[in-house]
Write a structure and sequence with these properties.
With about 290 residues, the protein is an alpha/beta fold. The protein contains twelve helices and twelve strands. The chain has two domains: about 40-120 and about 235-285, 3-Layer(aba) Sandwich (D-Maltodextrin-Binding Protein, domain 2), CATH 3.40.190.10; about 120-235, D-Maltodextrin-Binding Protein, domain 2, CATH 3.40.190.
Length: about 290
């Protein structure tokens, strides 16, 4: 250990210096920000369980904070709930995946503009015995018709999320009345994607899920992807800055920086670099609203 020797009087001056440094560190804590022009760096992002469950925010948020100074707090719920929360002005930014609902949010004045951000796709996963014989099916509508005809167990989120909205649209196109089947072969969990997959695996059910959550899901059991590749299963995500004219509490400056970074070349590259076991979870396709 190196010993530091002080001449008479220096010890007192050094002690005062250290006290001043300690006081300054409490007044101005080190945050790792490279950007210091924000009066309030913290924003609230209403988002989906799929983006949170996939680890995307664990990957992105440190980079966003380093580049912009913005500290984003994520509320991960179904898209429907996320939009309702944002309508209640409990958000600075909305990042979800139900385009028509997002566009309505903007049209009603709650959002400034909706921007395409990234995409992946939905898949149907199946128990090992595949009772409806849908494995390898590339037509999602035919697959759902087979599941309904055989009354094979299907686990639905049933939570008004973006995934649930997509699933209901597919059932409608297939001509299947899932309300009539509710509680029989059609089981609604009212839960997020990870919880619904757990239920589906436990009861040997088919499940519609986004691919990112499935890739990151650890409790796959004997379930495997059965249906994929249909263009109807395209899954677009959008990002919206909440309108401070409607919600005066919005942290406009920080929210704008957050959205701009996600849409930038650096943000898009970071989204594309998020992988699990070498598999890319989201594909950047940013397009600013005109």
């Amino acid at each position: 250990m190196v010993k530091v020797r002080f001449r008479q009087g220096e010890r007192v001056r050094f002690g005062v210096f250290m006290l001043v440094c300690a006081a300054m560190s409490m007044l101005f804590p080190l945050t790792g920000h490279t950007n210091t022009d924000l009066d309030d760096p913290v924003i609230l992002v209403q988002s989906t369980t799929s983006t949170a469950n996939s680890g995307l925010y664990d990957h992105l948020l440190p980079q966003i904070q380093q580049a912009t100074g913005v500290v984003a707090k994520i509320v991960a719920v179904g898209t429907g709930q996320a939009i309702r929360n944002a309508r209640n002005c409990d958000a600075d930014v909305l990042l979800v995946h139900a385009k028509s609902a997002e566009e309505m949010f903007v049209q009603e004045g709650f959002g400034l503009a909706r921007h395409d951000l990234m995409y992946n796709d939905f898949i149907v996963v199946s128990p090992a015995n595949d009772p409806a014989a849908v494995a390898g099916e590339m037509d999602a509508i035919n697959a759902l018709k087979k599941i309904a005809t055989t009354k094979a167990i299907f686990a639905s989120r049933g939570d008004d999320s973006g995934t649930h909205k997509k699933e209901l649209a597919l059932w409608q196109e297939a001509g299947v009345d899932v309300d009539e089947a509710s509680g029989k072969w059609y089981r609604e969990t009212g839960s997020g994607m990870g919880a619904t997959l757990n239920v589906g695996v436990g009861m040997g059910a088919y499940v519609l899920t986004d691919r990112a959550t499935w890739i990151s899901f650890a409790n796959k059991g004997q379930h495997a992807i059965a249906v994929e590749g249909d263009t109807r299963l395209f899954n677009q995500y959008g990002v919206i800055q909440v309108n401070d004219s409607v919600c005066p509490n919005v942290n406009t400056k920080a929210a704008e920086k957050f959205v701009s970074w996600l849409l930038s070349d650096a943000g898009q590259q970071a989204i594309g670099e998020h992988k699990i076991d070498g598999q890319q979870l989201f594909f950047p396709n940013a397009r600013r609203a005109e």
